[in-house]
From TrEMBL:
It comes from Eragrostis curvula (weeping love grass). Belongs to the cyclin family. Cyclin U/P subfamily. The lineage of its organism: Eukaryota, Viridiplantae, Streptophyta, Embryophyta, Tracheophyta. This is Cyclin. One of its GO terms (molecular function) is protein kinase binding. GO terms for biological process: cell division.
Length: 207
């Protein structure tokens, strides 16, 4: 597949994050209360499911955004912050209606904070397949949603890297374990580490 070839050339973290988010999307799409979103329910929720897969979308971002690998880890941190803050006010699940817009906006915010040189919003809008006004609006909504909390400490960065590394090991086990075999570890749900805890306490990535 084309996206598999593009992911092979991308930083390893891109493929791992894609796989992790695909698990979350699959779980949330299958939830009993999952329904088509109302047009104005959230700026991040599309009225129809995009045709492009999460894996292909991440491959496209990695190909054209030109950002450092660390940006994808920071984008993961930002997504978790947004979802935990939104959970206190209103639900926003990472599903097939919202994952693409959340991804392009989180990566945009991470690139602007992490990298010395980055493309502008108009470029990211083209990469993400949305209009410039929509990209600008999503960025502002995202920043307010995370409370402009963009700093990521080395400890927090390390925690989230550990989660992605665990996901990578799970993916490698799945590809090397014969079908039908039992007893091996299996990732039940995607999670990330709470920044409020020093211990490796996991919390759901999606509400």
């Amino acid at each position: 597949m084309a996206e598999e070839e593009e992911l092979a050339d991308a930083p390893r973290v891109v493929g791992v994050l894609s796989a992790l988010l695909e698990r979350v999307v699959e779980r949330n799409d299958a939830a009993p209360d999952a329904v088509s979103p109302a047009p104005a329910s959230s700026a991040f929720r599309a009225t129809t499911r995009p045709d492009i897969s999460v894996r292909a979308y991440m491959a496209r971002i990695a190909r054209f955004a030109g950002c450092s690998p660390a940006c994808y880890v920071v984008a993961y941190v930002y997504l978790d912050r947004l979802l935990r803050r939104r959970h206190r006010h209103r639900a926003l699940a990472v599903d097939s209606y919202s994952v693409h817009r959340l991804l392009i906006t989180a990566v945009l915010a991470a690139v602007k904070f992490m990298d010395d040189v980055c493309y502008n919003n108009a470029y990211f809008a083209r990469v993400g397949g949305i209009s410039l006004p929509e990209m600008n609006y999503l960025e502002v909504d995202f920043l307010f949603a995370v409370g402009f909390d963009l700093n990521v400490s080395p400890e927090t960065f390390g925690h989230y890297c550990a989660v992605l590394h665990s996901e990578m090991l799970c993916l490698e086990l799945e590809t090397t374990t014969p079908a039908g075999s039992a007893g091996g570890p299996r990732l039940q749900h995607c999670c990330c580490l709470s920044e409020d805890d020093d211990a490796a306490t996991s919390i759901p990535i999606a509400a």
